[in-house]
Amino acid sequence: MRSIFLTICLIGLLTLPVNARELVIPKIPKPSQEEEVIAIITLHDHDSSTNIHGIKKEYPNMELRNIFVHALNGFSVKVKRKDLSLLKEDSRFDMVSEVVTYKPTLDHSVPFIGGDQMRGFYDAQHRRLTGKGVRVGVVDTGMDYHHPDLKRSYQGGKDLVDNDNDPMETKGEKQLATLHGTHVAGIIAANGRLKGVAPEAEIIAYRALGPGGYGTTEQVIAAIEQAIKDEVDILNLSLGNNVNGPDLPITKALNKAVEKGIIAVTSNGNSGPGIWTVGSPGTSYRAISVGASTPPLNLPFIKIGLGSRAQEIDLLPIEGTKKWDFPLPEELVLAGIGKKGDFKGARNKIALVKRGELTFQEKISNAEKAGAKGVIIYNNTKGNFLGNVEKKTHIPAAALSKENGEKLKALLLKEKMIPITTIYRRDQDKIAAFSSRGPVTVNWEIKPDLVAPGVAIRSTIPNGYKILQGTSMASPHVAGACALLKQAHPEWTAVQMKSALMTTAKLLSNEKGELYHTYEQGAGRIQIEEAVKADTFIDPSSLTFGLYENLRGEAQHQKTITIENTGKRTKHFSFKMPLDEPGLVWKLPISFSLMAGEKKEVKIGLSVNPKKLKKGIYDGYLQIHEDSKTLHIPYLYVKEEPDYPRVMGFEMGAGDNGETLRYELYLPGGADEMGIALYDADTFRFSGFLDTAVNAPRGLREKVIEKMKLPPSGTYYAVIFAKKGSKEDRIETSIVIP
Question: Positive or negative, the Cα torsion across 110, 114, 115, 119?
């Protein structure tokens, strides 16, 4: 098996050799115009008379695939790329969008958010709140409807991958078999050995993600279309991509579903902790987008050093391995990449290994055979990662960030061996590092709307149970909560449901005791037992004042919100002035009263003096006093759109087997063209492209490159570039492939 070793070092332009500074990047190869692609075409919203079958006759080379009438006003086609530009020029079409790939975004959590307390509440028929009679659609990888905990919950569904009525999870080869949808369904409505948030809710399963957990825009929209036809009450989408924008077809389809009365809940994404990392459909304005927080957990930390120089480093246990449990000090040793020969001297010790080349299972198995007590795997790209293994292990394993892993490695290269002590800290209500942050680009909406437990969540999988984590696990907690609230208040609209959850959520603070930003936690962590008692509704439930665009001086912003009293008595309302911020002056309504059943529009004003503004983003929470109760709504204002580099955050490392290389980079505004150009490190002669793309979407770009597509062994000078409009930005890096 070929070994891939990568050395990455960012080199500033001022330190480059003269030849490197003058490198010319050849034109990137264009995609074949004969390649067939699938595209989603939407018609203008006001146009319902267009004859789609007539359009098909005008474009004889176009294959009509699906017609959407509920989720979108449009259709999907298969067409050669050369004909796609003709479709984009047709004035009858509002949008022509090539499909992209979606993937899943991976039982103390239920009582923690108030699920158990809800059993003490009753609906209008005096039944306990269990979600009974509420239909929850789950758009995912399917569902193991034979699972004993889900047999009673399953009430049918559809497979949009194979186009039949059997939404069973993908079975067969381990790499292709799926379990995600079953795990999500269990969080919502498991009713057996494990109890979900709403154990008597009805699950309608829509299999839109097929083998390996991947699906296309077309399949997900088809699932939303079917869910609207089936008149589900609630729709959960624990899936996403890394495109941060408000106008993708799935985002629009989800907005349409909410307009038709469905309560849509979606995961916010697992690309945190950076800002602007939320991806579609978490960018949907009308849906409830959910980030991940921690339920009550005993989290392991390793402590190195003594006295005032001691450092604590947090670990993230790898799911499927033995519990991390070391009550006494242990010795840590370096074990390379985790190959069999790397574990010499690791017997009865904990081994530190680097991610890449081998699977997690192989690394841990090699450590186990060498007699190691445990394994810590550190990342080979920036940040931490979520890891799991398919087969149970007899030793524990944990994940570590690249930064902390390299810190430990440096110590071990000096000392050969260092003592570590494991300590445990009870923790809860912290935002998970992986949870994607907002705001949404273009319209600056606050996302997520809420957070819910998404770390170490045990739920159902085919033939058993498993602990997983991700915003995929947070979203179904909220979907289940909506099922309970829908049973209690069948008259609530989607807007009222969202308001009840957001205005009563618990605001969370970080380790320093400071409130998380609105674009990290939205309105806070859900509290179902508070939301069920809500009878004041605020629309919208968050406020974005947009981007400062008045170049001539002070800007005046005004937003209108509607406050509705659905209670049985008159209520008195007043606003609390936010903390003073230089350059911002608030104009809030005076106190007022609303009689039972009355609603009122009120104006929220914000005056901005840009000369006094010191930050790029201003955010916080408006507090509204409702008699003795306090409601809150998040707000956000963007001083200026950052002058982003067109490409940033480039990281590369070996893939998780010996056959691949893995890279990721971030395109804040997308790119007309992007690529990784390789040059001979000595002569700077162009050697070829490692990867290229045209019309690359904004967001995080992740790719695994197979061994056969890697260049010959040697040292290369790499230029990672992205062009958008008239601007091009580059990152220069050296890469060694022995």
Answer: positive
Task: State the chain's mean pLDDT as an integer.
Answer: 86
Q: Are 647 and 720 in contact (CB under 8 A)?
A: yes
Query: Does the CA dihedral 375-379-384-385 come out positive or negative?
Result: negative
The pLDDT score that the predictor gives to residue 262 is 97
| Contact (Cβ atoms closer than 8 angstroms) between residue 201 and residue 188 | yes
Q: What is the pLDDT of residues 328-347, one digit of tens each?
A: 899 999 999 999 999 999 99
Give all strands (DSSP E) within 219-282, no chain letters.
234-237, 239-240, 263-267
- Say how far apart CA 252 and CA 72 lie, in whole Å: 7
Tokens of 119: 């059993």
Q: What per-residue confidence (pLDDT) applies to 9? A: 31
Please provide residue 102's backbone torsions phi and psi, each rounded to the nearest 5 degrees: -115, 150
Sign of CA dihedral 251, 253, 254, 255: positive
E strands present in 13-153: 36-43, 63-68, 74-80, 93-98, 101-104, 135-140
Sign of CA dihedral 230, 236, 238, 241: positive
Q: Tell me how far apart the alpha carbons of residues 454 and 290 are, in angstroms, rounded to a whole number.
A: 10
Q: 501 to each of 94, 117, 122, 452, how far by Cα in Å?
A: 34, 16, 18, 11
The model's pTM is: 0.80
* pLDDT tens-digit map of 28-84: 877 777 888 888 888 886 666 667 888 888 888 888 898 888 888 888 889 888 888
Cα angle for residues 492, 449, 178 (degrees, 5° grid): 95
Q: Which residues, at least 6 apart from 266, have a Cβ–Cβ distance to it below 8 Å?
A: 236, 237, 238, 239, 240, 254, 281, 282, 284, 287, 288, 289, 290, 475
Percent pLDDT > 90 in the chain is 46
Active-site annotation, residues: 140, 180, 472
Phi, psi of 410 (to 5 degrees): -60, -40
CA atoms lying within 13 Å on the CB side of residue 118:
31
pLDDT for position 184: 97
Q: Of 528, 499, 513, 540, nearest to 635 (Cα)? A: 540
Taking Cα atoms as reference points, which of 546, 540, 521, 713 lies closest to residue 633? 540
Judge whether 640 and 677 are in contact, CB under 8 Å: no
Tokens of 462: 């085919």
Place of tokens 């680097």: 354
Backbone angles phi, psi at 112, to 5 degrees: -60, -35
Angle between helices 217-230 and 249-259 (to 10 degrees): 10
Place of tokens 């450092």: 311
Taking each helix axis as running N to C, give the angle between helix 471-488 and helix 494-503, from 0 to 180 degrees, rounded to the nearest 10. 110
* Cα-based torsion angle of the residue sequence 561, 566, 571, 574 in order, rounded to the nearest 10 degrees: -20
The Cβ of residue 662 has, within 10 Å, a number of other Cβ atoms equal to 20
pLDDT digits 0-9 by tens, 672-720? 899 999 988 878 888 889 899 888 877 777 788 887 788 887 888 889 9
How many Cα atoms sit within 13 Å of 445 on the Cβ side?
23
* Centroid of chain to Cα 356: 23
